[in-house]
Structure formats: structure tokens, C-alpha cells
Amino acid sequence: MSPRIHLPSGWVTFVFTDIEGSTRLAQLLGPGYRPVLREHRRLLRDTLAATDGAELLTEGDSFFLAFADATAALTACLTAQRALTSHDWPTPEAAPRVRMGLHTGYAEPRDGEYASPEVHRAARVAAAAHGGQVLCSGSTAQHADPLPAGASLVDLGLHRLRGFDDRERLFQLVAPGLARAFPRPRTADAVAHNLPTQVTSFVGREAERAELARLVDEHRLVTVLGAGGAGKTRLAVELASGIVESHPDGVWFVDIAAVTDPGLVAFEIAAVLGLRPEPGRRMVDTLVEYAAGRRMLVLLDTCDAQPAASAEVISRLLAGGRGVRVLATSRESFGLPGEVVWRIPPLSVDPGPDGVESDAVALLLDRTVAARGGRAPDPTEQADLRRVVRRLDGVPLAIELAAARLRVLSAGQLAERLDDMLGTLDAGRAAPEPPVEQGWAGNQQDTVDLVAAAAGTPPPSAASRAVLRSASERHLTMQATVTWSYRTLGARSARLLRWLAVFAGPVDLPTVQWLLDEDPLDPLSVLVDKSMVLADPHASGSTYRMLDPIRAYAARRLVEAGEEQQARNRHVAWSRHALDRAHLGPDGRPVTLSLYALDPLAGELRAALRWCATGGSARSGLLLAGGLDQWWRERGLAREGRLWLFRLYGRLAETGEEVPEAELAAAYHMHSLHAGADGEFGEELRYSQRAEAAARQAGDLGLLARVLAGRAAPLVDMGQFAEAERVCREVIDWARQQDVTPDALLAIYNLAELLWRRGALAEAADLLGAARPVEAARPVERGRRSVDMLLGMVALARGDLVAAHEHLLVALRSRMSHGYLGRACDTLNAIAVRCALGGDPVTAARLFGAAQATRANLRATPGLYGPYWLARQAELRRVLGDAAFDTAYGEGGELALAEAAALALGVEHPDLALDSPRFTTPTPITPAPPAAPLSRPHHA
């Protein structure tokens, strides 16, 4: 440096510049590098040194200058960058990218140089910059007043400069003609990560976090799969924030949703890592070289936006260095070697074993408190909050949106409105248009433009920018979230998704094939891979299900596509087919009906009934309801059965659909039995009469016998026992004459009960003995073993404990095996009487308590036997005393039905020794007052 150059003193602004990637540029250009370097020096001297700056050092591609004025220093840098950008270089790849850094500090020159730490700080500021970027320290920003015309400084926050213990606030010079978007500054931050800061608390998922942490520790590539809104990103970020210290070279979050072109995936990752494109070199190669010797975790979010490109970059990263690990979130897996796919489950909706609320309820409570201004939900809303999270299938985004609705609705109101799930959750949440020139969207677009230019590709189109905006808006509504995946589906997969919406629950592969009438494996695989359908493997084969928010979306699409009528009618046909199969064995022949076979079908049949009652065939609905005839009553759902029938009658009146009289008779007969079980005796009699009229009109003698066999039920319910007995005898005699005795089996059961009630035990036993082969020949009745139950009651009345024991245990075992839960309660009560008569009052009290608890859960009435059970319980109370009876009765009430049945079946067989109490004097049966209505007969 010439001694004639005046070096400023006092508050001096130091400027350092150099060419980013100069070594790579020299290799690329070869002999052509020297002219580029000379031209670069000329431009900088013309713009920097030509100002008031003092050039202290020029070495290779670097400049070091000192300015007495901070504004002049920034103006010189701005002018230099514009000159470099506008210059006509030999090729675009030959254009040098110069980084510049400024710092202002108090310094005095000595012997033609500065020996001050402020110089080193300025050098570190320059080292933090990227090519084409001008960074300055907070001190320079403070002294630069005014700023160059049209320029501004953007605060980049506090950063730790290499070699300095304190943090320096860095600013970026922004002005027309300068690039705006750059990667994060190259600084030595103590916490090496860029994980997004969460503004809401993380709730639950303890088990999931532990499992995912173990997988990330043991495997280099872990992909978190899940549907939109399942909480993949939030869980991954939460996990990553806890393992930053385990990765010395950082944990880096990259959102692939913002990438509009597959070729820009590597650029997006590189930008987060602080890397810039190198002339003549693929970005992925630069990325791999950087990562090769480092131990770091890269969290790639929303990889389903660019699955193929993400997979390629991940594969290269993992192959390039052993210290790199990748945690990815996506709606579909990559299929890469070594990839561990972990599917995120919905939040648990069931309370923990210690009574702690489920994670789903805990999240809803937390967000509801925030939505209501810090006011917690009323304790009376707890049950409705549980209903809400169950309807939402524990989907976190759906729960977050539901909490927002609780600003204006009670939990009960929200639960009632979830039949229109999308409309309710998305109400009032129209996606806003994000700003284009400022804030997040503007920065993202600048970044995309910059990396596109560096890659030699044109900037994204308006359509691509719309995709970019949708990436940020996709979680504003459930509709937008699912649309994000739906738009990637092919025609067959999209159709299958829409049609699967007609199912209420999981389905197996044959069912899906039935629905489409073609092999569904290919489109189904796509839906599973994209996490729009969940596959649950079992030993007998996988089942497939959709979360309720996705089902609601698919159902809306089904209507929009004009396919609802066809798809739902197909579902109704499948439901009827499934009901038929429940009555048949593998060989296609009738088998003993098990109500357990109907339990898994209940949700599907309700969905089919809903369609039949609103847009489909009421006749098909009546047939479906008839297939559940006994199930409604045995599960304590007689009232629900009646309501469905009323809806179907209304649909018939609306459409005028023709229904054969025989089918109407069967429906009215079923309705009568439901009404009796529900205590609606007038309705019971009215529909019994309608059933008889329709059956006579149909001319089907067997059907008429079945209808007439139930005519005693309303009479018993109204306390007209003698009249009921007369009707039963008439029906039985008529059925014998018409050779349809098996169809009058219900009348035989009812008559046997009435005979037992008035003590005609021998006639009852003879009647039942003759009915045994009839019952055994009828698959829909033999599982109930009503003959054995009634013979057991006769034996109890006679005091024959051996016969009672044997008959009742046979009846209980069969009823439990075939799912007749309401009838099993009657048998438990009968075995309780047998225990009381056999000298085991404590077991008797427990069984009474268990039977009553189950009957209460089923909302079932005790029927004809009610007074008898009460009389025996009163006698037990006298024997045991109030305290002991209540204790044993309460213990029984805590037992599940299966546990109570096991207790009853374990009762020891009566001793047949000479001194055994086989024959005892039974307590007389106390008949109910004739005028007191009880309920429908036990065997309805």
C-alpha cells in the first residue's frame, strides 16, 4: 500500500470482500479464470476504491478497505454489487459472486495498518455472507445515517461470529438490483438448528415419541407416514428439538412443500445448510460433499410434495456420508433401501388405565381453553368432548379446528353437528391470500427465483406460485388438507377413495372387490401408500379403513362426481349379502345363528339403513332391519330398531315404492316385538294387528303362524294372562292343523311360561319335551336353547336341583356362545335361584347382582320372571342379612357378563348322595297381580 494513502481513525468502517467458490470457479474456467479475476478487480477498484475508501490489501480475489464514513461504505458496496451484476461476463457461469461484509469500530492506524479486533470482527461478518450478499454489523447499521438512496437494512437477528464469544446482530443491505433471498448467515451459532418455534404446547404422544426416538437412534432413514393433519410435522419437530445435542453439526428443518419443481429439492436443502450453487456443478454434488464429513440430522418435511426428487437426494446424502441421518415426513414412503417406515397413529381417544384423559381429549381441552380466552370447558361438557374426539378419530388437525368452533358452540352442539364434519370444522376459515411482496410468501418466492436462476431454469410460473401458496394454506381447513393428497391420485384410485366413503368402518379385500366388481389391489395400494387409507394387518388378512375426516371428504367428492346413488346402492347390496352369510356356514348351508356374527356388521348396516331411509330403497331397508331382528332386542336397542322402522315407513310413503305384503307382515311383526321390549304396549298391539292383516293378505301360512304366535305378547304385557294362554293354545292347534307347527314355536314358549307361572309344571314339561326337536331343527332359534331354559325353570319349581343345574348350564353356555346376552341374564338369575336352593347364598347374590347390572346396561326389562327373581332375592336378604347381601350383590355388579357366566358355569354339580338336597321344598311362586303390566314375554 502506498504511504500517501490516508487511513481514517476514530470510528472506522472496515469492508472485506471475496469471491464465493473461487477455487471451484478457477477449476471450471481454467485459463479463462485469470481474465475474470482481473475484470473483477477492476470493477471493485472503480466502485470501491474510487470512493472515499482506503484500499489496504488486495490478495487473490479478496479486498480489504477502510472508510471514514459508514454510509459511504454501504454506498460503495451497493454500487459494486450492481456493477458486478450488470457486467457482461463471458458466460453466465463465469460471473463471480462476491460477498461483502462491513463492521464499524473505533480504531487507530499504526505503521500503515490497523491492529484491532474490530478488523477481525469485520472479516467474520464478511465470512458469514453469501455471494452477492452485503452484510453489516449492528454498529455499522447504527452509524450509517442516512442509508443509500432506495436502500434498507433487514435485521437478520443475533449471531455468534467465529472466534468471538458474544453475539453480533447482523443486517442485510436490501436495494433494487440486489438479490434479496439468501441462506442463513454462515455463523457459529451455539445451537446448530433451524427448527421452527412452536407457539402452542405439545400435548401427549409420550409413547409415540419414545418409539420414534428409538427408531431415529437406530436407523439412518426414518419416514413418518400419515394422512394430512395427522400431526407428522409437529411430532417430528418435537422429537428433533430434543436430540440437537446428539448431532454436533446440527439438526436442519427443510419444508419440501415450498418446492415447486423437482429440480429444486437439492437447492432448498442447500439453502437451509447455508450452501450456494457452484458454477458448473450439480447442487446435489455440492450438498453431498458438504455433508460427507458431518454428523447431522436433516428433517425433510412434506416430502410427498416432491416424492421422487426427495428420494433421490436422500439416497445421495445417505450414500455420501455415514454421519448423516434423515427424518422425513410424508404421506407416502420412498421405497429406499434401509428406509424404516413408521406410520403415525391418531391420538388415543380412550382414557388411560389410571383414568387420565386420553391424548385426544387433552389436546381438545388445551386448545379449547385458548379458544375461550383462558376459560376451561365446564365439567358437564366432558362426555361431549369425548364424543367429539371419537367422531374425529383422534386426528390432531381436526381436533385443533374443532377447538376453534368451541368459541361459539358448546361441546354438545359441536358433537351434534359433526354429521357434516367438513362444513362444521371449516366454518369461517376461508384461506386468506398471503402477501406476495413481503413476509413469508415474498421471501419464499425470492428464494425460488434465486435458486431457479442459479440452476439455469426459468422462474416459476403463476400456477407454480399458486402451488407455493397452497403449501402454506393446506392446513387451514380439513378440505384443503385432504385435497393436497387427493389431487395426486389417478382416476381409479380417486374413484376407489370416493366409493370407500360408503363404508362406516374397516373392510377386507373381498369386500372392496365386491364394491368395485373388479380387482382393487392396484388403486388400493396407491391409497394405502399415500396414507389416505390405513391398512391393518391381521393373521386372517388385512383390513382397510379411512379416518372419519377423510371419509367425510371422500363422501363429498362422491356426491360431486354424481356417483352416490350407484355406490350406496352397491353398499346396501353388500350389506344384505353380509347378513345372508352370517346365517350360513362355509358350505353354504344354514348354521345356528350367532349374534356375535352380526356385531361387526352393525355400523355398516346402520349406514345402509340411513341411505335406504333417505335416498335409497325402503324395501331394502326393511329387509336389512329384519336381518337384525333379534340383535336389536338382545343388545338393548329395541328403541333404535323402532326408529329405523318409522323412518323406512316414511320413505315408503314418500316414494310410493311397492313392498310385498309378506315383507310388510314380517316388518310389522318385528316392530311389535320391539315395541313390547321397549314398554310401548299400545304400539305393540297395534303393529301385531297390522302384521296379522298383512300376513293373511299374503296367504303365507308359515308367516301367519309366526305372526299369530306373537299375539300373546301384548296380552301378557297388559296382565291378561288367561286370555294370553287361550290365544297360545288356539295358535298351536291351528298350526298343527295347517302343518306349520315349527313356525308357531314362539307360542309354545309363551304357553310354557304361562303354565310355569300358574304351577302347571307337568303340562309345561310335556309341552317342552315335544318342542325340543322342533327347536333343534330351526337354526335361528336353537342357539337360544329356550327349551332348556324353560325346563330348568320347571325343575326349580319342582325342587329338582340336578335337572335344574343341567338344563340351565346348557342354556347359559349356548346363549353366551351365540351372543344372546339379554337371555343370558335370565339364565344367570335362574342359576342364582339354583345356588340359593342348593345352600350357596353368597354366589346366588353375586349372580343376581351381575345379571341386574348387565340388564341395566342393555336397558332390558325382567319380563314374566321379574316377580319371581324379586321374591328369591328378598328371601336371600333374609338369610344373609342386609350387609352381607348388599356386599355380595355389589361384587356381582362389578363383574362383566363373561365373568359372571364363568362364575355360574363353575358352580358345582349337586351331590347325588342320599342326603343331598336334590329335592327340596321350593318357595311358592308368587304371581304378579293380573292388572299389573310387566313386559313383553321373555321369548319375543
UniProtKB/TrEMBL annotation:
It comes from the Bacteria. Keywords: ATP-binding, Nucleotide-binding. One of its GO terms (molecular function) is ATP binding. Residues 915-940 are annotated as: Disordered. InterPro entries: A/G_cyclase, HTH_77, Nucleotide_cyclase, P-loop_NTPase, TPR-like_helical_dom_sf. SUPFAM superfamilies: Nucleotide cyclase, P-loop containing nucleoside triphosphate hydrolases, TPR-like. Pfam families: HTH_77. Residues 13-126 form the Guanylate cyclase domain. PANTHER family: HTH-TYPE TRANSCRIPTIONAL REGULATOR RV0890C-RELATED, REGULATOR-RELATED. This is ATP-binding protein.
